[in-house]
Automatic annotation (TrEMBL):
Belongs to the peptidase M48 family. Residues 60-247 form the Peptidase M48 domain. Pfam families: Peptidase_M48. Residues 1-20 form the signal peptide. The keyword Cell inner membrane does not apply. GO terms for molecular function: metal ion binding; metalloendopeptidase activity. This is M48 family metallopeptidase. It comes from Agrilutibacter terrestris. GO terms for cellular component: membrane. The keyword Metal-binding applies. Keywords: Hydrolase, Metal-binding, Metalloprotease, Protease, Signal, Zinc. Transmembrane segments: none annotated. Binds 1 zinc ion per subunit.
Length: 268
């Protein structure tokens, strides 16, 4: 009976999912949570971050970030532009930034140590906006829910036949294997896709896509050692730079056309 209930639960979960296509044409499975729920979660996480982390009192920094965000977001479809985008600059020395469902963008003051100009800052922000636009949060939650549900079924089946101890071991061991062999590689795929989408957005907004390469060169210089690529949620920096550099050439005409049509950002 327990096995039947678990199978029924997984079937219900999968029935709520849907197959869609990302901005790059990649097949995605989403629907583990609704977009409304994701927006609520994003707003809650953003509010908690603002409550725990001091925000910059430098008005020029805040205006600089807001300017870049606005110009990147203006390249999204209209329904994505009007979701109430909000920005915050946090006093944190780590060179990091994030974007959350519901249009919440956070930038650490440490990002300015590696993003030396508006084009390099646009690289970071457009990448993070690319995650939201590509439904990566929904996709990741959906896959995690599905993976955990399948492990519970496998554990129950093993436990029914070999004992509860074996069943628990299957769930725990399977979780480790899924993390290393399924969830993390997917995250690297999402990171690479956000690079593609972000570089396109920044070029259409009038930011130089070639500066994405310079940004990541600065990142490498600042980061020092890092985890092996196969146990990381991000692509290898050298691999990333090669891919960004190869795309930049094809995006230069897009950037030049954007400038010619009046998209000339003067954020900082």
């Amino acid at each position: 009976m327990k096995r039947l209930l678990l199978v029924a639960a997984i079937t219900t979960l999968l029935a709520g999912c849907a197959t869609t296509t990302s901005p790059t044409g990649r097949r995605q499975v989403v629907g583990g949570v609704s977009e409304e729920q994701l927006a609520q979660l994003g707003a809650q996480a953003f509010a908690e971050t603002k409550a725990k982390t001091p925000q910059s009192t430098d008005a020029r920094q805040s205006a600089y970030v807001r300017c870049v965000v606005q110009r990147v977001v203006a390249q999204l479809p209209p329904d994505w532009q009007n979701i109430g985008w909000e920005t915050a600059v946090f006093v944190d020395n780590s060179p990091n930034a994030f974007a959350l469902p519901g249009g919440k963008v956070g930038v650490n003051t440490g990002i300015f140590t590696v993003a030396k100009n508006q084009d390099q800052l646009a690289t970071v922000i457009a990448h993070e906006v690319g995650h939201v636009y590509s439904h990566h949060h929904n996709e990741r939650i959906t896959k995690q829910m599905g993976t955990q549900g399948l492990l519970q079924v496998a554990g129950a089946l093993a436990g029914a036949r070999y004992g509860q101890g074996v069943g628990n071991a299957v769930v725990q061991g399977g979780g480790i294997a899924a993390q290393a062999g399924f969830l993390l590689p997917n995250s690297r795929e999402q990171e690479s896709e956000a690079d593609v989408v972000g570089q396109q957005l920044m070029a259409r907004a009038g930011f130089d896509p070639r500066q994405a390469v310079n940004l990541w060169q600065n990142m490498i210089a600042a980061s020092g050692g890092r985890s092996p690529e196969w146990l990381s949620t991000h692509p290898n920096p050298e691999t990333r730079i090669r891919e960004l550099n190869s795309r930049a050439a094809s995006l230069v005409p897009v950037f030049e056309q954007a400038r010619a049509s009046g998209h000339t950002p003067k954020c900082g």
